[in-house]
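Changelog note: in this version the structure field was regenerated for every chain. One regenerated record is shown below for reference.
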Amino acid sequence: HHHHHHHATHHHHHAVPKANPALFPLPKKPLTTVISEPLIKSVEHLPRNHLGSKLYSPQLDIPSSQSQMLHAKFGYMSYATPIPKFDDKSNCTFTIRVPRYFLTREQREQICTARNVWGTEVYTDDSDPLAAAIHDGWIRGEWDEEDEKVLVDVELQGSQEPEMPEILGSRPTSGPVVPPLEMDLHITILILPALEQYGSTVQHGIKSRSWPSNHDGMSFKIHQLQWVDEGNSRGEERGAEARRKRL
């Protein structure tokens, strides 16, 4: 077991970080506006073009033995295929079309487990846009029932509202929303320049990752959510059946 293998030689290294875990406390509520507002202002003079859309399509990975335990529950990991490279397209928007399948409890739990998201409020362009929408407080995450600690914090806010607005133009003030059944989701992001570094925070039950420097792409911020009924994403035969019924 590799921990013991290194034990004798690197013993002093192990002790140092563990000695005082409270040394670098992360702020409970990150000062998110400090991050994004100057960044948005710095590019607002640029033309805002809409760059089209792409289907949200995670790639499935069979987990390596190292992460086997963590993901035994799911048996696979998914990584959202990154958005296209939009160099020099700051202040433009792009839409990711998310079929309702990925909005189920199980899928959202898997996204919260995978944590394929780098940054806080402003994320690297290879972050999973759905994970970003959960971390940024637009969509409610989902956790293992045993994860009581997270739930206590989250359950107080984020109830499903009876009248769900079709378009969310800003982060919902009443807390993250539970995706309505039988709806697909369009996540529109705002393309922003790369940050010098992307900070990790725990927000809304999901811990984002940090990226210290030299990110060679762009950033994005969640700009708008729209609930839609994309009939075609539910499979051909249901569409054909519906057409027959109409005739």
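Spot check on this record: The radius of gyration is 20 Å. The mean pLDDT is 77.
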